[in-house]
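Lecture notes, unit on protein representations.

Consider one protein chain, 214 amino acids long.
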Amino acid sequence: MQSQDTDFALKNFIVLEGIDGSGTSTQMRFIEAAFKEKGLAHMVTAEPTGRPEGQLIRKILQGELDADPGTVAHLFASDRHQHLYGKAGIVEALESGKLVVCDRYVLSSLAYQGSTCGRDLPEYLNARFPAPGLTIFFKIDPEHSLQRLSSRSKLEIYEKMHMQKLVDIAYETTIAQKRSRGWKIETVNAEKPIDQVRQEVFTIIEAYTGFTIA
């Protein structure tokens, strides 16, 4: 019997996950360029979104606003719901036949908010969101990921060593749980050179979609 998570998986919905500095945004740009070159109908997106909910979250992450961790967890869930089901959202794009690639989704909330306000609230808020068809997790040592961020003039509130170590552990625990419930999650070594990571990511996406993008 299929698990609840597997029953609600969204085909052709691909999510990139990883701690800060793992390279998801860089690889997203490679994926978008490849899809465009091959003429594949697609949408690339990210969470938090550019909607008002997402903009509020970004102000909190940048330290411009103070908010209780539970409030942040609720904001992420609200932003995600609209992102999925709102006009021009993920579900609408998938129903129109597009491949959708998103930088961060449910696993991020379970890892990040789960590390700040405990697992119960994020799990409750995200329990009914559908699973992606494919998740690619970018595994990197927190010390190395923060080295990549060292050139930034200002770090976000989660971009601190103790926090990244907690989130890294939380990701591993959450991924194991989701895999046991039927989520398709592939792990890539994000410590490798960017081009090697890109090729591995492309291979995973090609195997999942059946499209050649490399």
